[in-house]
Write a structure and sequence with these properties.
GO biological process, one term: mitochondrial translation
Radius of gyration: 41 Å
GO molecular function: RNA binding; structural constituent of ribosome
Number of domains: 2
Helix content: 55-70%
Distance between the termini: 142 Å
Largest sheet: none
Keywords: Mitochondrion, Ribonucleoprotein, Ribosomal protein, Transit peptide
InterPro entries: Ribosomal_uS15, Ribosomal_uS15_bac-type, uS15_NS1_RNA-bd_sf, uS15_ribosomal
Strand content: under 5%
Number of strands: 0
CATH superfamily of the largest domain: S15/NS1, RNA-binding
Subcellular location: Mitochondrion
């Protein structure tokens, strides 16, 4: 591996002291030195008792041969945002999933999206006027809602466990959700008023029909024989 003297030289080297044409190459080497070290460690994994996960924490815990400079270079203090998110995602995967290597399942995608959402929230707290990341945050939240809805329908026990471990409060969306405005409210009031007037007209028509039917029935029925006078009875005899 690299000695502490070589690493200190790369970390403390000032390329401005050298020729101008040497400045760019040295800067790129210094910038990519950490990733090169990680690549070397992963390539030589069979020589050291490393766990199957290739995270910075595991490299530090299971590598007693490194000195303090290499440990600090490989620590989370010097890590970029991508590596930090990867470690967070692996920790949550181990908590929730039965098989952490399964990254295509619905709950695994929800975990990855939750880590991304939390990183967006941290970014928005520092940069409140960043409209692009705000849009990404809202789109990711909507996508996670759809995934949670599908997981709730397919596997409710895994859905409960995922929400509990991630600290998500799931509220079922309403059946009909539409933002009301003045034109829509006026149109709805007019429709209700027209419906009420139509019901009144129908009621009046039914009453007129019933009255006409009663009058017709009264005209067709003759007078009963009990009401006929005694003279009509004598004539029949």
């Amino acid at each position: 591996m690299f000695s502490a003297q070589q690493i200190r030289f790369v970390l403390t080297f000032n390329p401005r002291q050298m020729a101008p044409h040497f400045h760019r190459d040295t800067f790129c080497y210094k910038r990519n030195f950490r990733s090169f070290l990680l690549f070397k460690l992963k390539w030589k994994q069979h020589r050291f008792p490393f766990p199957p996960t290739h995270t910075c924490l595991s490299l530090l815990c299971f590598s007693p041969r490194f000195d303090d400079v290499v440990r600090r270079l490989l620590s989370l203090e010097m890590a970029n945002q991508k590596e930090k998110l990867k470690i967070k995602q692996e920790l949550l995967m181990n908590k929730i999933l039965a098989n952490p290597e399964d990254t295509n399942s619905l709950e695994a995608r929800i975990v990855a999206l939750t880590v991304k959402i939390r990183s967006y929230e941290e970014h928005m707290q520092k940069h409140r006027k960043d409209k692009a990341h705000k849009r990404y945050l809202l789109m990711s939240i909507d996508q996670r809602k759809k995934m949670l809805k599908n997981l709730r329908k397919t596997n409710y026990s895994v859905f409960e466990k995922t929400c509990k471990e991630l600290g998500i409060e799931y509220t079922s969306p309403p059946l009909y959700n539409r933002k009301g405005h003045q034109r829509w409210a006026a149109k709805k009031a007019l429709c209700i008023r027209v419906f009420q007037e139509v019901q009144k007209l129908k009621k009046q028509k039914r009453a007129l029909k019933a009255k006409a039917a009663a009058q017709k029935q009264g005209q067709k029925n003759p007078e009963s024989p009990s009401k006929a006078g005694p003279e009509a009875i004598e004539e029949n005899q």
